[in-house]
Amino acid sequence: MAKGQVAITVERCKGCGFCVEFCPTHVLALSSAFNSKGYHPPHVVAGDKCSGCDLCGMYCPDFAIFGARNARCS
Amino acid sequence: MSEALLDIPLNSTNPVEPFLRMDRMPHIWCPACGIGTTVNCFARALESSRLNLNKVAVVSGIGCTGRVAGYANLDSFHTTHGRAIPFATGLKLSNPELQVVVYSGDGDLFAIGGNHFIHAARRNMDIKVICVNNLTYAMTGGQTGPATPTEVISATSPYGVFEPSFNLVQMAEAAGASYVARWTTYHVKQLSRSMEEVLHKKGFCFIEVLSPCPTLYQRRNKMGDGLDAMKFYKQVSKTRNGAPTSECALTRAGEIVVGKFVDRDRPDYLELLKHQMTASLGDRYADPEVTTCSEG
Amino acid sequence: MHAAPKGVLTGVHFLDGDHACCEGTLAAGARFAAGYPITPSTEVVERFAWRIPTVGGIFIQMEDELAASIAIQGAVWGGAKAFTVTSGPGFSLMMEHIGYAAITETPCVFVNVQRGGPSTGLPTLPAQADMMQAKWGSHGDYSIIALCPNSPQECFDLTVTGFNLAEEFRVPVMMMLDECVGHMTEKVVIPESDQIAITPRRFTHKSPEDFRLFEPMEDLVPDMVKAGDGYKFHVTGLTHDERGYPSMNVETQDRLVRRMQDKLKPFANGRALFEAVNLDDAEVVVVSYGITSRVAQRATQLARAQGIRAGIFRIISAWPFPEQHIRELAGRAKAFVFPELNLGQMVHEVERCAAGRARIISVPHAGGSVHKPEVILKAIQEAAR
């Protein structure tokens, strides 16, 4: 079980790539799917590495993603 | 982010949302604009500051950063270009228990608003000024501002800026600010911490945040997009807490000195006022209960 | 509601208009002022700076009139009654913020002690040449209330009225003094505080969930709020909807701008402030305001003594313009004579309202002193021919 997980609000994402770039454990990558505005949102590619640090949430200029720690690991 | 969290189901809310007027989302800022990032930091700073949010007010001027007031779920004021600081002055003096935060851009605060900035700093007015510096007048199309570095191409300097630019942190210190720091939107943790610090510090506090403007500044200068700007900030930033602000000037592609440069204690405007009045008038001085405008 | 005793300097005084105006602000409940020195208005805030620390409030001298004119609005939203004071060049600087006060419906008072213009002009000499600017000086369509005292006593009384109207209509009010009225010293009677009626700010009774900062009540005026009470309201100078959120489209613009104008109609149509003397049988109506009305009074007396049926319509509320009264007079009088300390400003409003039904004789003056009564008398004689 990963230490944390992320929640992505796909429709808000504008594909800037900050979360992908600055996730310390490279949990995310831009997906090939796109939202209704044509942007490629991130998706989780290494979920077991997520620590729930919420750096993605702090970087996201569109408030489209955040991370949180899972209970048993806090 | 709170440590003691339960399992989060995927439809739980983003911790920034209580601080936003969600009925006004999505916001108007461009993809990879850094203003939203600074708002995340501000939201987290408000949360960890444990301030009564009913008593926090945000005052903005005009510009892209000026739109922050409209999205902040607080008593918020979108005022005129350059005049957020004097508005904030009146708001604070009439209602001193408010924590008044001015959140505006480089052009708004330092060109048209420059005079007001230096006088509020001189007075050590107890307001917190967050300046998102994207080195341009973004809202109007990317014109030259007083913080735009030389040699940059802009809408009003199509052949390159030749005017020397302001060193905002040096200006703030020289004018008398009690707290001066600079971060970039890459430095989310440090920025958030600085914002929390100033929310608990009396006096005129100034935080400059460098932020990408991908649509205008980055594009016109062939500097890539917002992500490229963020990587650039990471690459060339040097944290030098306590560095002399005179050594912190910005250039087009050179080192960015970040850190907390000034943190001093000086009596703020209201303390000075009360001290002087009490010394002169003694018992006759009536402590201002300025918000006396209640219904009869 | 009555004035708070702390701010009322009850008694019989010998004061100039500027000083009396300051006492008016204090009696009205103003506890915050921001200003910038400019002749001939400075004494208003100098006195306030001297008085307010023992009454309880704050005066701050800001770095310029741009700052002063918006600092007072910050203070209003913090909960205080606030005003600023200036003259021509400063009034020009304040124009953007007068527009901001209008569209955000911020109740506040701007005092303009008019002097010779344009530009630096005649800093120590009177004029009445900012009258049109008071209504039209900021960009866009908006309405304000403007009052014209003609004596130090009226500088006190009408300033209280000005604050009351600002609160009632949630509108910026212009006190249009002039250097003569501001610097003349006369008897000023300030009554007991319980004799002075004050209009309190109409704070909402609704909960934060239900309250809309720009939702008009029955009188087209929205209720007020102040920062720090948990309403988490938003104020913007952008065209906005009832929530105060930017809403930049044709429908919202039409609704907002028309309501801002319509909310003052009850004042314009039934409550215009004026003084009427000998108008019942008047064939010549002498219209005037401010210091000029003192001279016009003399000229009209002289005319009556010569057998001319001349009467006085003294404008006290210049904006919204008292159209109904002028229209009614135009229907029965032969002519209007309108002396002003300018090259003809408010006279155009009389011309507009008279719509050709009466002759209009303007008696202009470029400013710097007051008319001689003989000059106005000559115009009355001309009008009576």
Name some characteristics of this structure.
heterotrimer; A: 74 residues; alpha+beta; Alpha-Beta Plaits; two-stranded antiparallel sheet; 14% helix; 22% strand; B: 296 residues; alpha/beta; eight-stranded mixed beta sheet
The chain-level structural class of chain C is alpha/beta
What is the tally of beta strands of chain A?
4
Question: Overall 3D geometry of chain A?
Answer: globular
**Please, how many domains of chain A?**
1
- Uncertain segments of chain A are none
Measure the end-to-end span of chain A.
13 Å
Give me the side-by-side strand order of the main sheet of chain A: 1-4
Indicate the CATH topology of the largest domain in chain C.
Answer: Rossmann fold
Count of helical regions of chain A? 2
Rg of chain A, Å, rounded: 12 Å
Residue share in β-strands of chain C: 15-25%
Tell how many strands the DSSP assignment of chain C holds: 16
The largest chain-to-chain contact, stated as pair and per-chain residue counts, equals:
B-C, 50 and 58 residues
Oligomer: heterotrimer
Quick summary:
Chain B is α/β, with parallel strands linked by helices and 296 residues long. Chain B has one domain: Thiamin diphosphate (ThDP)-binding fold, Pyr/PP domains (Rossmann fold, 3-Layer(aba) Sandwich).
Note down, in words, how this protein is organized.
The complex is a heterotrimer of chains A (74), B (296) and C (385). Chain A is an alpha+beta fold and 74 residues long. Chain A is 14% helix and 22% strand. Chain A has helices at 18-22, 55-59, and strands at residues 4-8, 28-30, 42-44, 65-69. In chain A, 49% of the residues are buried. With 296 residues, chain B is an alpha/beta fold. With 385 residues, chain C is of the alpha/beta class. Chain C folds into two domains: 5-195, Rossmann fold (3-Layer(aba) Sandwich); 274-384, 3-Layer(aba) Sandwich (Rossmann fold). Chain C has helices at 17-28, 42-55, 65-77, 88-93, 95-103, 131-136, 152-169, 179-183, 250-262, 265-270, 291-305, 323-332, 347-354, 373-384; strands at residues 11-16, 30-35, 58-61, 81-86, 108-116, 122-126, 145-147, 172-178, 185-190, 234-236, 274-277, 284-288, 310-315, 317-319, 335-339, 359-363. In chain C, the strands form three sheets. In chain C, strands 2, 3, 4, 5, 6, 7, 8 and 14 form an eight-stranded mixed β-sheet that branches. The chains are: A alpha+beta (74), B alpha/beta (296), C alpha/beta (385). Chains B and C meet through strand 2, helix 3, helix 5 and helix 10 of B and strand 2, helix 2, helix 3, helix 5 and strand 10 of C.
